[in-house]
Amino acid sequence: MTPQDASKRAREICGLAPIVPVLVVNDVTHARPLAEALVAGGLPALEVTLRTPAALDVIAEMAQVSGGVVGAGTLVTPQDVKNAKAAGATFGVSPGATDALIDACEAEELPLLAGAATATEAMRLLERGYDMLKFFPAEASGGAPALKAIGAPLPQISFCPTGGVSPQNAASYLSLPNVLCAGGSWVAPSAMVTAGDWAGIEALAKEARLLGA
């Protein structure tokens, strides 16, 4: 997969909804109903972070949910990429980017939303052919004002800000011309997931869907 094809597919995925749920799932039995609730609420692109022992099994379960597009977050090593692809992930998300990680994603034909926090990092990824990136950690890196400033000299790059994005500040990011969507964890609070409150999570997803209106 070429960087151009990867970025095109990443753009398509980011264009599905204004918010991409960032999910930390500990129990695989929660995977399918959680994905179904989020998709029903209008958030089909799901990022399952590789932060729990169950993550790969969760990806495999969610990949079977109709209407969902499941990706793996927290890709750090080439082995992460291979594991995620084998589990059924159709895109990857990384906190940063290394040549080894990018090479692995291209070899596995896994579209990558690579992380960048500075103009230099963004330019390096653009140099490799990637123009759809993750801005991370968004709030700690200056928030919407910083991303707006980066966009002025680099208008050809689009971003999905993640890290500290909330219902209170999401609109400030989504209003920027260089932002296609934002990543957020608030649509699937751990307490609601543990309690199996799928109706509540679907309601949160529906509210998040309206943020891009």
UniProtKB/TrEMBL annotation:
PANTHER family: 2-DEHYDRO-3-DEOXY-6-PHOSPHOGALACTONATE ALDOLASE-RELATED, 2-KETO-3-DEOXY-6-PHOSPHOGLUCONATE ALDOLASE. This is Bifunctional 4-hydroxy-2-oxoglutarate aldolase/2-dehydro-3-deoxy-phosphogluconate aldolase. The keyword Nucleotide-binding does not apply. InterPro entries: Aldlse_KDPG_KHG, KDPG/KHG_AS_1, KDPG/KHG_AS_2. Keywords: Carbohydrate metabolism, Lyase, Schiff base. Its EC number is 4.1.2.14, 4.1.3.16. The keyword Lyase applies. GO terms for molecular function: (R,S)-4-hydroxy-2-oxoglutarate aldolase activity; 2-dehydro-3-deoxy-phosphogluconate aldolase activity. It is an enzyme of class 4 (lyase).
